[in-house]
Amino acid sequence: MTPGNQRALHRTTRANPGDDTRLRVLIGADTYPPDVNGAAYFTHRLAGGLAARGHDVHVVCASATGDPGIEYADGVTLHRLRSVPVLVHPSMRTTLPLGVHGHLERLISRLAPHVVHAQSHFTINRAVVRCGRLSGTPVVLTNHFMPDNLFAHAHIPAPLHDMVGGLAWRDMVRVAHEADYVTTPTQRAADLLAGKGFGRPVEAVSCGIDLDRFHPRGAERSKARARFGLPDRETIVFVGRLDEEKRIDEIVRALPRVLNHRDLQLALVGTGQREGELRALAASLGVADRVHFLGFVPDEDLPLAYVAADLFAIAGVAELQSIATLEAMSTGLPVVAADAMALPHLVEQGVNGYLFRPGDVAELTARLLDVLGAGEQRRAAMGEASRRMALTHDHRRSLDRFEEIYAEVRPARLTGVPRRSPAPGTPAARRRYPVAAA
């Protein structure tokens, strides 16, 4: 996303509250591009998709440079707040709490949005939810939160994970109870939220993927490998942050065992705190020449990273959905994934891939060989099954459902009692967005 012209915040003008020709949506984002993570990308796609449908979309997020301002990009108005670097995650910036609440009050007063949509429960969105409530604006909240994704960055010692995770979940649930409608990307994530004490229904709405951008192109595999400087041999790919919770070291540890049977390589797309350790691990195992660190791949080239591969592997245990896995499936790749959190929703054993017990490198090796040794015809059938499963996650269907949710919450102005999500068995509940496990 290329930032548009920047202008001073005070030049924001109030929308006409009586103009209902299009929906006005204010989206809160504690992470947004150029941040590289699933929640940031989903929020960007949601905002751009709504704007492309003619809605008046505003996003309030941290400044990418530190200085506040307004940017216009892809039909979306970005209200960038003053920010500082995140000490435990140097590639990201955050907004300090001081002054955020007052700014959000003024912004909501000027824009008069029909709905506000929070994407987390952190600094910006905490204020988005509270100010939405106080203004009588319906509040939708989508949860992308997993404490496991923060432990490594915050350097939380392993013995404290349960305690810190419990406190973090209680804080998240408290904020979520202030919203009128709560969604999360998968049913597994919805069940998790219920298990952490959230006592109202949660709707599973897929983050969605662009099926037109990520589609099978097996005939271009050799050309795609050349694009990234990869030798033309069998390739396992992983796309995502090279951070601790992704457990990429398990894939690297499996590689020497797989190489006893197959002539292949591993391509890692992304950057992160563990890159140096992963390079050292590959060298210590004697496979440095078979592990290719492709770094950050621009969005326009990302589909080719999947086209270059024969198989997608993911070992993470804290995935609420895994957009990268869905993109790989949409490209027609078989998948080998850890049997943890939402990943089992995306893998049907022996149909489009295999699951393995997290941490079991021997089983991971066996599952990789099951796919790679299956033969071209069988692998093609697994890739076709992946594509069929990915079709249920068309981002246009996700946009359809969010438009419906906004319409459902919009007519009622808040009276101090949150609007409840649809009760199971009601017509509204039966419109739940389908997920791959359905």
From TrEMBL:
Region ranges (Disordered): 416-438
The entry's keywords: Glycosyltransferase, Transferase
GO molecular function: glycosyltransferase activity
Boundaries of every Glycosyl transferase family domain copy: 223-388
Domain of life: Bacteria
InterPro entries given in the database record: Glyco_trans_1, Glyco_trans_4-like_N, Glycosyltransferase_grp1
Basic residues biased stretches: 429-438
Gene3D superfamilies from the UniProt entry: Glycogen Phosphorylase B (3.40.50.2000)
Coiled coil: none
E.C. no: 2.4.-.-
Keyword Glycosyltransferase included in the entry's annotation: yes
UniProt cross-references to SUPFAM superfamilies, sorted A to Z: UDP-Glycosyltransferase/glycogen phosphorylase
Keyword Transferase: yes
Domain Glycosyltransferase subfamily 4-like N-terminal: 36-213
Identification of the protein by name: Glycosyltransferase
Organism (species): Nocardiopsis mangrovi
